[in-house]
Amino acid sequence: MHLDKAKKRIAKQVKKGFHGYPLVSLEYFGKAPDSATEVVVSFTEEEVHIPANVNAHSG
User: Fold this and answer.
1) d(CA 1, CA 4)
2) Contacts of 25 (CB under 8 A, 6+ apart)
3) What b/e readout covers 25-45, taking b as 16+ CB neighbours within 10 angstroms?
4) 46 vs 20: CA distance, rounded Å
5) Spatial distance between the Cα atoms of 57 and 59, rounded to a whole number of angstroms
6) How far apart are CA 12 and CA 20, in angstroms?
7) Mean pLDDT across the stretch 4-23?
8) d(CA 41, CA 30)
9) Per-residue pLDDT tens for 25-53?
10) CA gap 22, 18 in Å, rounded
11) pTM (2 decimals)?
12) Preceding omega of 22 cis (within 30 degrees of 0)
């Protein structure tokens, strides 16, 4: 899948807005804004639930 297609699909979902739980969020971290060296994925099952984080590091 091309990067532009992926961005377009994500943007379409964002436009739809929040419709409840479960909720998944992605956070990208890195030294430069154009390359991520760490990705944090958070999954929240319900409103009062503490999110479960999955960290991925690239070497």
Assistant:
1) 8
2) 41, 42, 44, 51
3) eeeeeeeeeeebeeeeeeeee
4) 8
5) 6
6) 17
7) 82
8) 15
9) 888 898 887 888 888 888 888 777 666 66
10) 10
11) 0.49
12) yes
